[in-house]
Amino acid sequence: MLFSANTIKELACAAGFSSCGIARARSLEVARGQFEDALAQGRQASMRFLERDVDKRFNPEKLLPGCQSVIVVTYNYCIDEEPASDKYRTARYTWIEDYHVVVKELLDRVVEQMKTITDCQCRVTVDSSCISEKNWAVEAGIGCYGKNGLIHNDSGSFFVIGTILTDIEFDCYDTACESDCGDCRLCVESCPAHALETPFCVDARKCFSFHTVENKDADRELLGKAPLLFGCDVCQEVCPRNQKKRTSVSGKPKTSLFLRLQNEQFENLSKEDFKRYFGNTSIARRKYDRFIEAVQTRNKESQ
């Protein structure tokens, strides 16, 4: 007996996700080829982990033997509150509690409910495995690739993605989305790092998001040019899809404490303060020393 796709979507919506789609598990050979081309061109910069387990990125059965379906959800991280600081800004996804934790808890809840209905094997991912979540989001019909390399839909692109790999077969599946960017080049032309000169393919070697988050050897001059301390939202802020920001309602994300910090509090941040204000956010991975270095660099550049 096939499982009801609508039932899963209702469970996901009730849990707090903004959208849910389901793709039939298969090997995404075209996407894999595009990914390997990007690697060959060195667009991954120093992120060597992207070069590992390429098979698993595009073939879910390599991660969950017997996988029949890939359930993909989006979680909207937009909130009404704005940071108190006008000088030390971070990407919007950091304005809530660490999405890795929040989204995983919600997905685990959905899986628990699935298992009360039918016997099944499942594996949850939220940036926690090598699976290409963005490609599966497209495959599951919940969004399309923008020229900034991110996924957007009618609600914009201020969301993160989670997946449930399962051995369940569903009564219907969603169809893949095609890009609807058309002739729009706002993100390409607005990127302060010129990292989108090849539309739909981000060059991490230039991207400020890479240098402020992943790059452990980013120099002070480069950090001083970055629009944000952590991450970069420029390409999203200019996207027409995001001009009407829809705040999260059903998910009710908990606002990060650091949004209350004034400029001088950033500049005098101690290790204890860092743990208190950033310990439960995605910024915690940056560690205190690297974060305060970025603060000092921005302070110097503004003087």
**Low confidence ranges:** none
Q: How many DSSP-defined strands?
A: 6
Number of helices: 12
User: What is the N-to-C order of secondary-structure elements (H for helix, E for strand)?
Assistant: HEHHEHEHEEEHHHHHHH
Rg result = 20 Å
How far apart are the termini? 67 Å
Question: Can you describe this structure in just a few lines?
Answer:
By secondary structure, this protein is an alpha+beta fold.
Key features of this structure:
alpha+beta; globular; 303 residues; two-stranded antiparallel sheet
Task: Give structural notes.
The chain is of the alpha+beta class and 303 residues long. The chain is built from twelve helices and six strands. The strands form two sheets. The protein has a four-stranded antiparallel beta sheet with strand order 1-2-6-3, with helices on both faces. The protein has a two-stranded antiparallel ribbon with strand order 4-5. β4 (144-145) and β5 form a beta hairpin. The longest helix is centred in the middle third of the chain and has 19 residues, at 99-117. The model has no long low-confidence stretch (mean pLDDT 93).
